[in-house]
Amino acid sequence: MGRVYNFCAGPAALPEEVLQEAQAELLDYKGSGMSILEHSHRGKEYDAVHQEAVSNLRKLMALPEEYAVLLLQGGASGQFAMVPMNLLGEGQVADYVNCGAWSTKAIKEARIVGRVNVAADTSKDIPTRMPDPATWKLTPGAAYVHICSNETIAGAQFREFPRTDAPLVADMSSDILSRPFDIRSFGLVYAGAQKNLGPAGLAVVVLRKDLAARASERVPIFFRYRTHLEENSLYNTPPCFAIYILALVTRWLLRQGGVDAIARRNREKAARLYAAIDGSGGFYRGAAVPEYRSDMNVVWRLPSEELEERFCKEASAAGLKSLKGHRSVGGIRASIYNAFPPAGVDALIEFMREFQRKNG
Ligand code: PMP
After folding, report:
1. Ligand 1 centroid, distance to 106 Cα (angstroms)
2. Is the dihedral of CA 113, 118, 124, 126 positive or negative?
3. What global pTM score does this model have?
4. Which of 2, 99, 237, 300 gives the lowest tally of CB atoms within 10 Å of its CB?
5. Cβ(204) – ligand 1 distance below 6 Å
6. What residues are annotated to the active site?
7. Domain with CATH 3.40.640.10 in the chain
8. Is the CB of 175 under 6 A from ligand 1?
9. Of 335, 267, 268, nearest to 300 (Cα)?
10. Whose CA is nearest to atom 5 of ligand 1?
11. What CATH number matches the domain at 258-359, 3.40.50.510, 3.90.1150.10, 1.10.1060.10, 3.40.50.720?
């Protein structure tokens, strides 16, 4: 079997060109006689990789000087803990918008650290949706407001971001670099890398530098943003290979024309898939309300669980892999991040038509 269409929510499909580049230079990195996996993180070869990853991210997100990029370990879940450890001071309240399973996990972690106000909650809503910012019950003087920009499991995404008085913090794990956004609306954004950026385990954090000063001396040194900011994410040995792949993925994205160009392609891919769902006469039913449908994770149901199971099984046999929805929501989920090719979406739509013809 050759390369399949991989609809997995994460770790997710990477650009084929990136995999080929990594393969081609694996044994002998740029004539150095060793792999990038074996180079010192203090040496010039790795240093160039590290700087490129950071500078590509800065370019792609058009980051102003007052924001820093950190490359950390522990995935997005590590950030569920680090955000309150660093930003939620003694006696303060953090506002959390609960829009699904990932926000729920972030809230659980923050509650261990300090006081949390759930400002809005659509985590149990079916069809899935995001809470309208006009309804959020925010705390005056809150330490920060936390949202998840795209709920990977629910298939719901914020289309726009509100301006908040307290610094807005966003878990962008499943939609970072998929569309343009103005970082000035945010105090901090973070993302696990395994969807749009590279390998799992790495987290990218973008924060307004002044926020790094907030952590008290009681926060262990390793878990302070300040530590990693001061050391340009080289305080300890970073996940070098993951950052190398991040450098290749961001270089690839710049070659595609950057975030604006990929956002147009992402919109088209998602719109075609939603049109196929909506045009099925009710055989396929979208899981999210239309105004909050995600361009990254398209989730839908079939008339019965038995049909959903058959759909996934037959799709898999046809080279369309990992379409089973998350166990908490059920149904089908097609994750179509930046690297997922438009031809794969067309193949899925073709399969959906044929499946409905046979089973509808
Ligand atoms: N937030 C969101 C929105 C996610 O989709 C995920 C992973 N699917 C996480 C957080 C957790 O990421 P990690 O496994 O890197 O901790």
Report:
1. 10
2. negative
3. 0.98
4. 2
5. no
6. 102, 171, 195
7. 16-255
8. no
9. 335
10. 152
11. 3.90.1150.10
